[in-house]
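User: I'm new to structure prediction. If I give you an amino acid sequence, what do you actually give back? Let's try with this one:
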Amino acid sequence: MKLLKNQSLLVLLVLFSGYGYIASCTHESVSPLPAAASSTAVITRGTAVHLPGNMVVGDTTQWKLDKPHCNVMWSTNYVGAAGLLTGRFNQFGMHDVTEAKMLNYVTAGQPLLDSSWAFYENEPAKTYFNGYVQINQSNTGEPARDGGCNITTLGTVPIVAGTQNLTVTNIAKIKTTDVKFDPASNDYIVTLNLTWKGGLAAPLTKSIVGRLKYIPKAKVQFGTGAAYSVFGLQLKFQLNCRDFGITSTSVSDKIDIECNMNFNNK
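Assistant: Good question. You get back a string of structure tokens that encode the predicted 3D arrangement of the chain. For your 266 residues, that looks like this:
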């Protein structure tokens, strides 16, 4: 009788243990759901207005592009699948380069005033900007690539020392057509025209949508120098290089562009 009781107890223990094992396995991959993130963005915009004027040095009402502290960067996947290829353009500007201005300029500095822009923080319909890059000034940090395969791949010509090349063969331009609030953040949604010849017989203009971020005005001072104000604009967009006749299989179809523009009123 005692043996029977012990056997019954053993059976019960096995059953309970088995149930506990099954229950634990059934819920092994289940974890508490994270708290739902708030879908309501906190949007705060001021009323700042930034204009270049005639870019007179010393006039604090006129904003100047601080080119040494700006950059235009690009990135794409190597052979469309591997790690990133990245680089930046050494020469760029913010000017509406019309056909009549698409020339070679014998100068080491900016060939044209960086004055083709305006920013209205709370009135995006008034905001606009124009920009350009010199394609042969793409800088990957690998001289053999920058002065070699990049030149032929991008349909341009080698750099000529002391010359800023804004000719049709070597310039890519952007021009905004619409700027509006992003309803989900403090950013702005920008529609722009990108014009570039690339590997085509003639320049092509494509409409592209990007995102603009405003870094609000702040006052800075270094050492005993006079204080001055700064602000920034960050533009990101993506283009399909195949649209512009770039056939190299070393780069992916999609190229990401990031323009970081800093301004001061010195």
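You can read the tokens as a compact description of the fold. Here is one thing that stands out. Residues 2-26 form the longest helix (25 residues).
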